Amino acid sequence: MLPADVPEEKIDVWFQDEARVGQQGTLTRCWAKKGTRPRLKRQRQYESAYLFGAVCPEKDKSVGIVMPKVNTASMQVHLDLIAKKIPPGRYAIIVLDRAGWHTSPKLKTYRNLYLMPLPPTSPELNPTEQVWQQLRDRYLANRGFKDYEDIVESCCYAWNDFTQQKGNIRKLCTRSWATLEH
Asked: What backbone phi and psi angles, to 5 degrees, belong to 32?
């Protein structure tokens, strides 16, 4: 729980979500010569991984990890990583959806993190959804994966390449309603 006496200038707003990436992937638009019908790959195997991501638009920072499962234990690992990324003396409000692993009482609490669930059935309020769309459009759609390791490697490359480009997170994820007046 965020202490009541924390000054607003020491609070950062982060958005968190996760996405499944796998062999039954996404098809997306592609360039093709007018009048042609391009062939795109769509696998039928079931291997997949989960990309957990959190972004702080104000600071243009991110934390991501690829996990084999989406559950409370995986969420705990991700929260541990986010908590370590918050500088000493600062606090983070983590805006997330109401998935069972986000609201589980089994999650440990942190002195520097406060979890703030979005209203039910409102994924459009989480800008991390736009990050997933960018990763799929630019890196992960219209392709095949050899195996689980290839999926993990592709997720890591996509996340790192996108989030390390200066200004990408700030430009894509800033929301006027989610900023604190300093």
From this structure: -155, 155
In this prediction the pTM is 0.85
Kindly list the strands in the beta sheet with 11-22, ordered across the sheet, starting from the edge strand earlier in the chain: 61-67, 48-56, 11-22, 91-96, 113-117
Q: Looking at the domain that runs over 8-21+44-177, which CATH code has it been given?
A: 3.30.420.10
Reported as a single tens digit per residue, the pLDDT across 27-81 is: 566 667 888 877 665 546 678 899 999 999 999 999 999 999 999 999 999 999 9
Taking Cα atoms as reference points, which of 80, 87, 79, 85 lies closest to residue 103?
A: 79
d(C-alpha 21, C-alpha 46), whole Å = 10
* Other beta carbons within 10 Å of 151: 24
Kindly give the pairing relationship between strand 61-67 and strand 91-96: unpaired
